[in-house]
Please model this.
Amino acid sequence: MAGRGRTGDGAAVVSAVRAPAYARRVSQIERSYLAAAAAGSDCAIRLVVEGTGALAFADLRAAVDVAAAAHPGLSALRRGGLWRGGGPAPRVVASSLPVDDDPRIRAELSVRTGPVAEILLHPGGDGGTAVLFRATHAVTDGHGVMDFARDVFRVLRGEAPTGNPDALGDEHFVRAAGRSGAPAGGTDPVPAPWPVRAPGLRWVRREVPGRLSGGAGRVAAAVRAAAPGPARVMVPVDLRRHDPAVRSSANLTAPVFVDLPVPVSRRAVQAELLAALLDNREVAGLGADYGSANRFARTLAEATTDGSAGLPVTAIVSDHGAVPDGAFDAPGFRAVRVHTMPMWVPYAATFVSLVHAAGRTVLTAVVADTPDAVAAIERVLAAAVEEP
Model:
């Protein structure tokens, strides 16, 4: 067993290893993230729950242990072409720093030695608490992290975790989807709307009360309005929709592309997205030649350009959907804000995510930390929430 003692503030706790019964193939989607991570890209998913009150470290650690047993894919390690269970369960770390100031939120999560996921307990605003769940995108996706986080809070409330026990990857869902239309979206580069290279990154947030309808369409339309020319938006689609009975924590997001040659309304974008979903376009690119069909950076040289020659995608826009009220509450703790910290990708000018939870919608974008880029994305987010 790995050590379970806590040695003080900032100390990591790694719980007991899991039984190695879980095994599945590394999927085509996951291989692309393994390659990106090897080239130095930030491939972590981050979900932040902010609330009033406090969570005891020992209680959180115990809840993570129970939830992790119900999500064996989050304790898996890469062994050749397979993910095999039996690695360290998600690690729990106490930090004295606010979430945005903690360099650990970008530390590597090794798929060889594990753990592939961890939970950081931070001080929150106004004397509250913040919990950050993070995992490598090579082994899971936003849905998988969200499910795991919700199960941790279920356990904290004394409920049984729902779990994601199934060892199935994208191939199963592609078969379940059946036919698909041709993938939409061109391949010509689109102009960068603002600077995309800087020594640092900046996460920019905006929130509105209630649920923001048509969030992906709103952001896409605002991005096109800010772009100097044609834009292309990529929207991740959850493959689980093709077999909802399966509960898998694998990386099961595939892209739908929307080309925006001219400014459009958010309703027009939403109509295009709906047509793409009805046509199952997200599975069209998951064929045998997925690697060569990948329009994104495949080499370190491609990934480190300054964007002056254009980008494959102007923006990635991910809507995580609505979370039921109380899903992130626990005894002595009430969630007041839930958001993500999107990963930086080298082939887009920004990655924007939306989470609808705790009575509000939070939009978070990551951009290169330059005054022009930050000012531009602030205008984009403002326009997105203001469009009727």
